Amino acid sequence: MDIIYNTLKNFPYLTLFLAIAIGYFVGKFKIGKFTLGGVAGTLIMAVVIGQVGGFEISGEVKSLFFALFIFMVGYLGGPQFFASLKLSSLKFLLAAFSMTVLGLLVVVGLSIWVGLDKGMAAGLAAGGLTQSAIIGTAGEAIDKLGLATEAAKIMKTNVAVGYSITYIFGSIGPILMVSFIPILMKWDIRAEAKKLAVKLGGSKEMVEGEFDPIKRVDTRVFKISKTSKYLSKTIQDFETDLKSNLTVELVISDGKKLESKADLQIKEGDILFVTGLITAFSKAGNILGEEISEFGANIDFTEEERHIILSNKKLHGKTLAEIREKLGLTKTHGVYINSIVRMSHELSVLDNTEIHAGDEITLVGKKKDLDRIEKEIGYKPTSINSTDFIVFGLGMVIGYLIGEINFDINGTNVALGSGLGCLVSGLIIGFLRTKHPKMGGINVGAASFIQTFGLAVFVGIVGLNAGAPAFQAILKSGITLFLLGILVTMIPMIVQFFMNYYVFKIKNPVEALGVLVGSKSANPAFSSLLDKTQNATPTPTFTMTYAVANIFLTLWGPIIIALMP
């Protein structure tokens, strides 16, 4: 054991990665719908390992990884955050903002009432409001208080303690609300999700366990029969009858490949390669002929699936139906949407689905058709091997400089800190990226890794540096903090739900629950909501309010430190 201890003490980064590995392993276990998650698991395991002592890691390393994490939060969330700032979304934005303010007021009020110190209050907020970033922004604010080294360390340890005790119910509470509110309001969430999908332009034939299939695209091959209604008619006749939901991409006639043209006549025995929506193929088979799988080994037919980031401001806020009408058939011909992803969450592809700048749209079609539409929509995401390190580096520099801005609140000098500074610079660069696609490209996968890994390293160091005092604080205040955490989690949600319903008039059940869990940054609860709706209808309101809540809850870290006596 001494050999293991001495090795870990001499190489504390081994201890850090051990805490991350065990933490993510523990975080995978499920209890019903609840999973602890890798970040909370890492913090708890780091606190446990830290009880042995002697594993302290430099605070500068901790601050660096937090800055990287929070910069990527801004970079990835910037497009959606700014896209949400419009009149039609005002009630959702106000609902999300007021939820964060309610959370702040409840945290500060309860903390003053019970007599918690600044660090414990910030930890209560981080866990009860499930916003891990508060640990970092509050910790930076504590560093600016001018306290003695030991006093500052104890206060930052209390942040970690408060978070670790309150986070579990902080995640469970919104899940309970997603189950309890429909009972209270006598809502059938699945039925309401069906109605909303129809309102957005979806099919009325959705059955239990299915997503609306209108977005699914396929290519099939048909041989024209002698009974086909399209004998001697043109390709345009066929495509017009199918309302452009199917496109003939290639024709083989008498063994020869022919380019599919609008005026090309269809003959018996012709082989047609048809691409389009799966829902339209059932009709096509009946009126064209037999679907075949053998059509000659020498036939070279390829199509492309292309990811496009929407950046055309003229299309921002438009529905898919409006976009099709605006662009016209000459530009949209032969192009089909396979999926739409916003902030890593997939949207339903329905006529009335609203598209925002920064959305990633997956299109299917021939290369020439995709090249044509790409110019109208936006740009292809950065290559997996390409990152604009010039903009990334300058963004971090600007973030650190913004972090030096300071002001007085309640007699306490508060600096934004590198965390909030990098959040602001990330937001701005992420937003500008949608306006200037060739600037500031960071591969989404790489950005997501930096965000996740940066937070894991940060909380791991927080836990290890907390050491034995963390355990003593848990013994002293554990039950009190747990009970306070329940109040911090539940009071804002209960009050805000009725405010949303009666004041902001958010009465659609699916939207009401999407706003509620989004305003809490509650990913586990969102997964639970998706299980109940069995389609993606909650996603637009969730992503919109999640982006707002993420930003403002992070800002509350130094505010709590300043407001607490």
Automatic annotation (TrEMBL):
The lineage of its organism: Bacteria, Pseudomonadati, Bacteroidota, Flavobacteriia, Flavobacteriales. Pfam families: Asp-Al_Ex, TrkA_C. It is found in: Cell membrane. Keywords: Cell membrane, Membrane, Transmembrane, Transmembrane helix, Transport. One of its GO terms (biological process) is potassium ion transport. Belongs to the AAE transporter (TC 2.A.81) family. It is a multi-pass membrane protein. InterPro entries: AAE_transporter, Asp_Ala_antiprt, RCK_C, RCK_C_sf, YidE_YbjL. GO terms for cellular component: plasma membrane. This is Aspartate-alanine antiporter. GO terms for molecular function: monoatomic cation transmembrane transporter activity. Residues 290-379 form the RCK C-terminal domain. The chain crosses the membrane at residues 12-27, 34-52, 64-85, 92-114, 165-185, 382-402, 414-432, 444-466, 478-499, 542-564. SUPFAM superfamilies: TrkA C-terminal domain-like.
